[in-house]
Write a structure and sequence with these properties.
The protein is α+β, with helices and mostly antiparallel strands. It is about 20% helix and about 35% strand. Strand 3 and strand 4 form a beta hairpin. The radius of gyration is 15 Å and the shape is globular.
Length: about 170
Protein backbone atom coordinates (compact mmCIF):
# COMPACT_ATOMS: atom_id res chain seq x y z
CA UNK A 1 0.00 0.00 0.00
CA UNK A 2 1.47 3.32 -1.06
CA UNK A 3 1.63 6.18 1.43
CA UNK A 4 -0.33 9.43 0.84
CA UNK A 5 -1.41 8.34 -2.66
CA UNK A 6 -4.92 8.89 -4.04
CA UNK A 7 -6.47 7.53 -7.23
CA UNK A 8 -5.69 9.87 -10.13
CA UNK A 9 -8.41 12.16 -11.43
CA UNK A 10 -8.83 13.78 -14.85
CA UNK A 11 -8.97 17.44 -13.87
CA UNK A 12 -9.27 18.49 -17.55
CA UNK A 13 -12.70 16.80 -18.01
CA UNK A 14 -14.54 19.86 -16.77
CA UNK A 15 -17.45 20.85 -19.03
CA UNK A 16 -19.13 22.95 -16.31
CA UNK A 17 -16.03 25.02 -15.54
CA UNK A 18 -16.70 24.33 -11.85
CA UNK A 19 -16.19 20.75 -10.65
CA UNK A 20 -14.39 18.26 -12.90
CA UNK A 21 -16.51 15.30 -14.01
CA UNK A 22 -15.76 12.54 -11.51
CA UNK A 23 -14.80 9.04 -12.65
CA UNK A 24 -15.24 6.63 -9.72
CA UNK A 25 -12.87 4.03 -11.19
CA UNK A 26 -10.18 3.11 -8.68
CA UNK A 27 -12.02 4.52 -5.66
CA UNK A 28 -14.29 1.62 -4.62
CA UNK A 29 -12.88 -0.74 -2.00
CA UNK A 30 -9.57 1.12 -1.91
CA UNK A 31 -7.28 1.03 1.10
CA UNK A 32 -5.57 4.36 1.72
CA UNK A 33 -2.59 4.87 4.01
CA UNK A 34 -1.78 8.40 5.15
CA UNK A 35 1.33 9.40 7.06
CA UNK A 36 1.37 13.04 8.11
CA UNK A 37 -0.60 13.92 4.97
CA UNK A 38 -1.20 17.69 5.02
CA UNK A 39 -4.72 19.11 5.03
CA UNK A 40 -6.36 22.49 5.50
CA UNK A 41 -9.05 22.24 8.17
CA UNK A 42 -12.18 24.39 7.95
CA UNK A 43 -15.59 24.26 9.57
CA UNK A 44 -19.01 25.24 8.30
CA UNK A 45 -22.21 26.09 10.12
CA UNK A 46 -25.31 23.95 9.63
CA UNK A 47 -28.94 23.97 10.60
CA UNK A 48 -30.02 20.41 11.42
CA UNK A 49 -27.12 19.06 9.31
CA UNK A 50 -27.99 21.29 6.31
CA UNK A 51 -24.99 23.51 5.44
CA UNK A 52 -25.51 27.25 5.74
CA UNK A 53 -22.18 28.82 4.75
CA UNK A 54 -20.47 26.02 2.81
CA UNK A 55 -20.17 27.96 -0.46
CA UNK A 56 -18.39 30.90 1.20
CA UNK A 57 -16.05 28.68 3.24
CA UNK A 58 -15.14 26.40 0.31
CA UNK A 59 -14.56 29.40 -1.98
CA UNK A 60 -12.27 31.05 0.59
CA UNK A 61 -10.28 27.88 1.28
CA UNK A 62 -9.94 26.92 -2.39
CA UNK A 63 -8.73 30.44 -3.26
CA UNK A 64 -6.10 30.25 -0.51
CA UNK A 65 -5.00 26.78 -1.67
CA UNK A 66 -4.62 27.97 -5.26
CA UNK A 67 -2.83 31.18 -4.18
CA UNK A 68 -0.36 29.06 -2.16
CA UNK A 69 0.22 26.67 -5.09
CA UNK A 70 -0.79 23.81 -2.79
CA UNK A 71 -3.39 22.08 -5.03
CA UNK A 72 -2.28 18.64 -6.26
CA UNK A 73 -2.23 18.68 -10.08
CA UNK A 74 -3.72 15.19 -10.44
CA UNK A 75 -6.74 15.44 -8.17
CA UNK A 76 -8.35 16.74 -5.03
CA UNK A 77 -9.86 15.37 -1.86
CA UNK A 78 -12.11 17.05 0.69
CA UNK A 79 -13.03 14.91 3.68
CA UNK A 80 -16.27 16.10 5.31
CA UNK A 81 -18.03 14.99 8.47
CA UNK A 82 -20.66 16.38 10.77
CA UNK A 83 -19.40 17.30 14.22
CA UNK A 84 -22.94 18.14 15.36
CA UNK A 85 -26.28 19.19 13.88
CA UNK A 86 -24.89 22.73 13.68
CA UNK A 87 -21.25 22.25 12.62
CA UNK A 88 -19.30 20.25 10.03
CA UNK A 89 -15.58 19.74 9.55
CA UNK A 90 -13.86 19.71 6.15
CA UNK A 91 -10.29 18.59 5.49
CA UNK A 92 -8.84 19.74 2.15
CA UNK A 93 -5.85 17.69 0.98
CA UNK A 94 -2.93 19.94 0.02
CA UNK A 95 0.67 19.58 -1.05
CA UNK A 96 2.09 22.10 1.42
CA UNK A 97 1.40 25.01 3.77
CA UNK A 98 -1.52 27.35 3.06
CA UNK A 99 -1.22 30.79 4.70
CA UNK A 100 -4.27 32.17 6.53
CA UNK A 101 -5.77 28.69 7.00
CA UNK A 102 -5.66 26.14 9.82
CA UNK A 103 -3.30 23.31 8.89
CA UNK A 104 -3.48 19.72 10.16
CA UNK A 105 -2.22 16.30 9.15
CA UNK A 106 -3.77 12.85 8.95
CA UNK A 107 -2.04 9.57 9.63
CA UNK A 108 -3.70 6.17 9.52
CA UNK A 109 -5.44 3.63 7.37
CA UNK A 110 -8.74 4.16 5.59
CA UNK A 111 -11.21 2.08 3.54
CA UNK A 112 -13.25 3.64 0.71
CA UNK A 113 -16.57 2.88 -0.90
CA UNK A 114 -18.31 4.59 -3.82
CA UNK A 115 -21.92 5.71 -3.44
CA UNK A 116 -24.20 7.38 -5.97
CA UNK A 117 -27.34 9.24 -5.04
CA UNK A 118 -28.73 12.32 -3.32
CA UNK A 119 -26.87 13.95 -0.42
CA UNK A 120 -29.74 13.14 1.95
CA UNK A 121 -28.58 9.48 1.92
CA UNK A 122 -25.32 10.39 3.74
CA UNK A 123 -26.64 9.13 7.09
CA UNK A 124 -27.19 5.67 5.56
CA UNK A 125 -23.77 5.78 3.88
CA UNK A 126 -22.09 6.54 7.21
CA UNK A 127 -23.73 3.44 8.67
CA UNK A 128 -22.60 1.37 5.66
CA UNK A 129 -19.02 2.58 6.15
CA UNK A 130 -19.09 1.60 9.82
CA UNK A 131 -20.42 -1.84 8.82
CA UNK A 132 -17.74 -2.21 6.11
CA UNK A 133 -14.98 -1.53 8.65
CA UNK A 134 -16.38 -4.15 11.03
CA UNK A 135 -16.81 -6.66 8.17
CA UNK A 136 -13.13 -6.15 7.31
CA UNK A 137 -12.17 -6.96 10.91
CA UNK A 138 -11.53 -3.39 12.06
CA UNK A 139 -13.06 -0.86 14.40
CA UNK A 140 -14.59 2.12 12.61
CA UNK A 141 -13.14 5.37 13.89
CA UNK A 142 -14.05 8.57 12.03
CA UNK A 143 -16.24 8.38 8.93
CA UNK A 144 -15.80 11.03 6.25
CA UNK A 145 -17.65 11.74 3.03
CA UNK A 146 -15.91 13.04 -0.09
CA UNK A 147 -18.60 14.91 -2.05
CA UNK A 148 -16.96 14.79 -5.47
CA UNK A 149 -19.06 17.55 -7.07
CA UNK A 150 -21.19 20.45 -5.93
CA UNK A 151 -24.99 20.10 -6.28
CA UNK A 152 -25.05 22.23 -9.46
CA UNK A 153 -22.44 20.04 -11.20
CA UNK A 154 -24.07 16.82 -9.97
CA UNK A 155 -27.29 17.94 -11.70
CA UNK A 156 -25.38 18.88 -14.86
CA UNK A 157 -23.57 15.52 -15.01
CA UNK A 158 -26.62 13.47 -14.02
CA UNK A 159 -24.69 11.59 -11.32
CA UNK A 160 -23.78 12.42 -7.75
CA UNK A 161 -20.82 10.29 -6.70
CA UNK A 162 -19.91 10.41 -3.03
CA UNK A 163 -16.96 8.49 -1.63
CA UNK A 164 -17.31 7.11 1.88
CA UNK A 165 -13.98 6.99 3.71
CA UNK A 166 -13.71 5.29 7.10
CA UNK A 167 -10.67 5.43 9.33
CA UNK A 168 -9.78 1.98 10.65
Amino acid sequence: METNVLPKMDMSDNPTGCCPKFNPEGWDGRHLHFENKPFVRATTRSLLHVPINMDAVFTRVQTHIEDAGAQAPDGYLVLSRDLSASEAEHLFAVTGPVPDEEMTTLSGDFITRVFEGPYRQAKNWVHEMETAAIAAGHTAKRVFMFYTTCPKCARAYGTNYVIGIVEI
